[in-house]
Amino acid sequence: MIFGAHESIAGGVFNAVERGKAATCDTIQMFNKSNNQWRAKKLTGDEVEQFFKAIETTGVTVSVSHTSYLINIASPDKALAEKSFQSLKEEMERCAVLKIPNLVMHPGSHVGSGEEAGLKAIAKHINRMFSELKDNNVTLLLETTAGQGTNLGYTFEQLAYIIDKIENKGKMGVCLDTCHIFSAGYPIVKPKDYRATMKKFDEVLGLELLKIIHANDSLREFGLKRDRHEHIGEGHIGKAGFANFVNDRRLKKIPMILETPKGEDLKEDKRNLKILRGLVKK
Length: 282
Prior knowledge:
The chain is of the alpha/beta class. The chain has a single domain (61-262), classed as TIM Barrel. Helices cover 40% and strands 16% of the residues. It has helices at 13-22, 45-58, 78-98, 115-132, 156-164, 178-184, 191-204, 238-246, 267-278; strands at 3-6, 27-30, 61-66, 102-105, 108-109, 139-143, 151-152, 172-177, 210-215, 217-218, 229-230, 256-258. Helix 2 links the parallel strand 2 and strand 3 (61-66). It is globular, with a radius of gyration of 18 Å.
């Protein structure tokens, strides 16, 4: 299995790779710009060079970048939707510069316009983005969500609906978040429930679309549609649930990325990664 965590880019994108090495990651997820600002600081040649050098010297790969939380291409507000579109397009371009193969995004929130309208808006903007990025080689991943509020993407069918409307399907994929699907009502703790849930994923979306797994325990109980991450084994999914994932041979080449709370010393990442690795049957 390939294990890693989301690491901070504070001080420069190359620092995320160094933090990944310190946290014992095989691979990492990172933002490629500030996650709570629309404006992106230009990537300098020196910063990009340092980024590639950090990957070479540490051996830590960068599997995926995560979009800014401000982006909502499902919004019925035309100005916000356009701002979101331009930001998403820019993040795809920054991934290309940094040679990050995947960009994961929360599909969006319909904010009262209705689920169908929101899903159609997402597909429309993604098609437009691919049409404008002629030489794109980055795969856009839709993340499974918990279904909190008016957030979309909390069923496999909703993600399939979006992908079905995308013309460039070859550059689309899915990121499965364990906390999110558990909160959305997909059981994964008991082996038979896990098998049923993954069978459903395969039937609706296809396992070939699964590119990244976010490994997060759930602070809240099953099916409450609450997105609250907890350390591995300390939430309602528990070690038993994660043992199902790490011992599923079909997933052995899919990076499992932590998005759990941590301090600057990264001891929580180290502990969570040790637990995940310890669940793999020899």
